[in-house]
């Protein structure tokens, strides 16, 4: 589905040329969920931005990105717009960055379906209501007519997820979609995203600095440091046999006393990760 080979990005400022991405290679198969985990500034967001071709204007990007057989770095005009509006969706960290503060929620949801997919406005409004119900929102009419400042962060991120899945994209790019939320809401929002991903058979590239969150919803994880992928493996592999000292460091910096679980990603919930403690009641007589 997505194949990135030797992706490099440099950004020139007045003083120097900065190497932001250095020979990044990764792949995401159809229906697969891949995590991109690393510390702040390691290049995770820039990798996602390169896929959508929304890197900073002073960046130089080389290498290869192939999406569904198409060479992404040579796309332009209508073909690029098409990819961004229907094939690939992105959920960013902060919902306020994508929602217009002076327009009600309904405008945000209808805009994508009406403008990008050519749906009639009435049909798009009905579909917007359905989508909000699907992401677990009650009182849909009230929410559709609300302005962003009237809704909680968790609610807004659900709205953004509803907008992102409206066009049934093949690939979801999720850039720390729950970082701004409290822990309980984080798990709920991640569960919704994960469920949709499975139902629609979407691929996902999920950026986070949290190894546990990635292990909860990803089939494989790539660990990133200083603009490079230092290691890729299934969650259990990274846990039991980390090959790179930085992966070991990430494992060691997690809360102490955590016992690994032998559960396949498809059987886990976002609050139950490959690394998390087994359920306290597990094995006890009912
Ligand atoms: N417009 C820009 N001009 C120059 N350097 C930039 C620009 N935007 C980002 N960078 C630098 O690129 C590097 C990678 O940034 P990126 O946002 O991809 O990191 P990240 O891993 O996503 O971090 P975080 O988890 O904090 O979002 C950082 O060193 C950052 O300072």
Automatic annotation (TrEMBL):
Domain ABC transporter: 2-251
Predominant cellular place of this UniProt entry's protein: membrane
Keywords assigned by UniProt, alphabetized: ATP-binding, Cell inner membrane, Cell membrane, Membrane, Nucleotide-binding, Translocase, Transport
Ranges in coiled-coil conformation: none
A Pfam family reported for this protein in Swiss-Prot or TrEMBL: ABC_tran
Annotated compartments: Cell membrane
UniProt region (Disordered), positions on chain: 237-286
Its membrane topology: Peripheral membrane protein
InterPro entries registered for this protein in UniProt: AAA+_ATPase (IPR003593), ABC_Ni/Peptide_Import (IPR050388), ABC_transporter-like_ATP-bd (IPR003439), ABC_transporter-like_CS (IPR017871), P-loop_NTPase (IPR027417)
Biased segments, Polar residues type: 263-275
Domain of life: Bacteria
CDD domains per the UniProt record, alphabetical: ABC_NikE_OppD_transporters (cd03257)
Protein family: Belongs to the ABC transporter superfamily.
Protein name: ABC transporter domain-containing protein
Lineage: Bacteria, Bacillati, Actinomycetota, Actinomycetes, Micrococcales
